[in-house]
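Hey L., structure's done. Input below.
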Amino acid sequence: MINNFIRVPQRPQPLARQLRADNFVVVDNTDHTRVIAEADFTSAPSTLHEKAIYLLEGRLFQVERLDYDNRKAYVRAVDCDYYTDAIRYDVERMLARLTAEVPRFEATLSVVRCAGAMETDPDCEFVQGFCSAVDVDLTNAIGFTTDAPHLAPLGAPIVIYGPGKPNQCHQVDEHIAVADLEAGQACFKEVLLRFLT
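Output:
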């Protein structure tokens, strides 16, 4: 992943002189309030939206609130095994590099469809039954996209669940262990038996 965030220097300079006015300040509220980074204006909405998992120097933070008007993202340290990756930003940087290096190269990037965040009520009867069937106590937010936002208009509750590790998705060495597939098969069987019998 290309880390497009700049670490705020630990110098006794006034912070206001270090940050660009249009960039976003990342504020950590874990133990006490402190500025931990600055994110550029163009990438902040895709990497610092609410519930995004933000990676900084090997530590993970969940975005609790993005204050767009005041250019601040409020985060709290979390323990999870994934982070939000700004794919569009990475592609734009790659295209800019190619345009600079290859004189006849031309390309534009446009978003054809954008899926927003969605959430199924964790107290919903279906969610409770599903979690019980797969022996999971609670639900949590995920920091990647799925088909769920496109299926939401159907009006049925949606649960994202399956074998594999989220940090393996779309990687060069993407794979799912056979043991994970077998465990997933057993879970789906239990879900089907619970809801269809």
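The beta strands are 5-7, 24-28, 34-39, 53-56, 59-67, 72-77. The longest strand covers residues 59-67.

-- N.
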